[in-house]
């Protein structure tokens, strides 16, 4: 009886703690939503009001029209989608090669790929810009996504994931006449749904949140991405119109939430199937 009561108290305490942490994490987003739905007079009123007196959607309309947000969101969606697919395709193939095949200089090449993780974007940006410019791809979609199509992180994680799949599975497939590519596409990839979903989400967010490279490689307004649109709101809005800026920020955040919600079921499936492998 005492044990069950103690377990109940522990569960209540754990849930309260998690709720408090969740509130702290969500508080900036909730505050941004609240400010975006307030007219300018209420935002700068004293004492400050955390809850809108009425829902004012003028900030969203003004932000949408001021920086052509529809065009910026479309550019970001195209770039992030292409990068996500490219990273997954190259990461799956390279991870498969490093995990299931033997070839000359295999370890050297793998460590060379991992070494690129030590080079931040700020170090690579100048040679990347010169390389892309020499190809005549400055201010183009190709120049925007080309440096992001390959990912050492994706290659490493796919290799580690493929190594967890029993070798006996490949041996059985080979006995049945299954070739390497058929084994990859019909067996390995279907077994890697949660891992692929997680990497797809991360890769999408990395490109969606990219700011430095688009700022350097793009110079026309019609080619700019959503992150630059938020910065444009800072410079376009007079006297820091925070309602306008927060409205633009929320519009940029919404697609990332949609992507996460779409991939969430794969995360849950991955957790539920842990420990079922040989």
UniProtKB/TrEMBL annotation:
UniProt signal peptide: none
Main location: membrane
Keywords, in A-Z order: Cell membrane, Membrane, Transmembrane, Transmembrane helix, Transport
PANTHER family: ABC TRANSPORTER PERMEASE PROTEIN MG189-RELATED-RELATED, SN-GLYCEROL-3-PHOSPHATE TRANSPORT SYSTEM PERMEASE PROTEIN UGPE
Membrane topology: Multi-pass membrane protein
Family: Belongs to the binding-protein-dependent transport system permease family.
Record localization: Cell membrane
Residue stretches spanning the membrane: 12-37, 72-97, 109-129, 141-162, 183-208, 242-263
GO biological process: transmembrane transport
InterPro entries xrefs: MetI-like (IPR000515), MetI-like_sf (IPR035906)
Name recorded for this polypeptide: Carbohydrate ABC transporter membrane protein 2 (CUT1 family)
All residue ranges annotated as the ABC transmembrane type-1 domain in the record: 73-263
GO cellular component, one term: plasma membrane
């Amino acid at each position: 009886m005492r044990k069950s009561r103690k377990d109940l108290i522990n569960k209540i305490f754990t849930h309260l703690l998690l709720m408090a942490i969740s509130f702290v994490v969500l508080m900036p987003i909730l505050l941004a939503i609240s400010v975006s739905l307030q007219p300018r007079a209420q935002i700068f009123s004293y004492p400050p009001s955390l809850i809108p007196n009425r829902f004012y959607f003028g900030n969203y309309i003004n932000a949408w029209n001021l920086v052509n947000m529809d065009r910026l969101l479309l550019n970001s969606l195209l770039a992030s989608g292409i990068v996500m697919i490219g990273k997954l395709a190259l990461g799956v193939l390279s991870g498969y090669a490093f995990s299931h095949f033997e070839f000359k200089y295999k370890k050297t090449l793998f460590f060379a790929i991992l070494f690129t993780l030590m080079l931040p974007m700020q170090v690579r940006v100048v040679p990347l810009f010169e390389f892309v410019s020499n190809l005549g791809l400055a201010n183009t979609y190709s120049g925007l996504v080309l440096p992001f199509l390959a990912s050492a992180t994706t290659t490493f994680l796919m290799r580690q994931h493929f190594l967890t799949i029993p070798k006996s599975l490949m041996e059985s497939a080979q006995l049945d006449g299954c070739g390497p590519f058929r084994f990859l596409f019909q067996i390995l990839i279907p077994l890697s749904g949660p891992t692929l979903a997680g990497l797809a989400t991360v890769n999408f967010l990395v490109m969606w949140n990219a700011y430095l490279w688009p700022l350097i490689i793009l110079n026309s307004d019609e080619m700019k991405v959503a992150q630059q649109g938020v910065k444009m709101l800072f410079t376009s809005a007079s006297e820091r119109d925070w309602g306008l800026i927060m409205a633009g920020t929320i519009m940029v955040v919404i697609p990332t939430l949609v992507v996460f919600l779409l991939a969430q079921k794969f995360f849950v499936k991955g957790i539920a199937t842990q420990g079922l492998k040989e």
